[in-house]
Amino acid sequence: MRLVEQGAEVLDVGGESTRPGAEPVSEADEIARTVPVIEALRRETGLPISIDTMKPEVARAAFAVGASIWNDVNALRAPGALEAAASLDALVCLMHMRGEPRTMQDNPRYDDVAREVETYLMERTEAAIAAGISRSKIWIDPGIGFGKTLEHNLELLRSIPDLTRHGFPLLIGASRKRFIAAIDDTGQADKRLGGSLAVALHAAAKGAAILRVHDVRETVQALRVQAAIGGEQSA
Q1: What is the mean pLDDT of residues 146-156?
Q2: Which of 63, 128, 173, 226 could form an SS bridge with 133, CB 3.0 to 4.6 Å?
Q3: H or E, element range at 75
């Protein structure tokens, strides 16, 4: 429970990699990978547990053992996903992704990435609400690194205020992403702490409500110092 001790407020569990080039995982394998982990976490902590999946049946299995948040990089576009989320009374996180993980980085193009991502996310929130999901249970995520170039990612980070103006809590997941190495190449992903903290501080200052990170303790410390400098109550 190291992450809990370090200050994590939500625990995200996934059984299928969504990194660029990743191959799909079967529903059965994904359930087998995630359900035992969620069961073990639920025995140890009362923190909210998020299931990171595109598959409705995986979400159902995860919720049956204690998950309460559905984090979907596919924004509930799979057949039956909207209905499943509504029936589970799930808090959902709807993310933007161009294409699918296996091919999403194959020359992604946009005319106006900030506008197109914002439009897509608002369309998905409307679909979720129409399916019976409460507006108060919807988060949005611009999908940093999911079908975007370096410049696309930077433009989305600059556009955080535009994404937050609709009133949906905004999640930013940029920790250890490859675009950091494109700016300052330090090799392995676990060497990108400095860049990850820079993004976290920027995102929080611009209005992001949730940060998905690997280095919890360091991020919490950075946010507390940022808040103290600004005269705010620490996180």
Answers
A1: 97
A2: 128
A3: none
What span, in angstroms and rounded, lies between the C-alpha atoms of 182 and 170?
A: 24
Taking a C-beta distance cutoff of 8 angstroms, is the pair 200, 222 a contact? yes
The type of residue at 176 is R
Domain count, the chain: 1
Question: From CA 32, how far away is CA 107, in angstroms rounded?
Answer: 34
Q: Is 139 strand, coil or helix?
A: strand
pLDDT tens, residue by residue, 170-187:
999 999 999 999 999 877
In this structure, are residues 142 and 163 in contact, taking their beta carbons and an 8 Å threshold? yes
223 pLDDT above the threshold of 90:
yes
Task: Report yes or no on 185 lying in a domain.
Answer: no
CATH number of 66's domain = 3.20.20.20
Q: What angle do CA 141, 146, 151 make, to 5 degrees?
A: 95
Residues in Cβ contact with 43 at an 8 Å cutoff, skipping those fewer than 6 apart: none
Considering the entire predicted model, what is its pTM? 0.93
The yes-or-no verdict on residue 235 having pLDDT over 60 is: no
Which is more confidently placed, 60 or 231? 60
| Residue 87, domain extent | 2-172
Q: Is 87:106 a contact under the CB 8 Å cutoff? A: no
Question: Average pLDDT for residues 121-135, to the nearest whole number?
Answer: 99
Active site amino acids: 177, 212
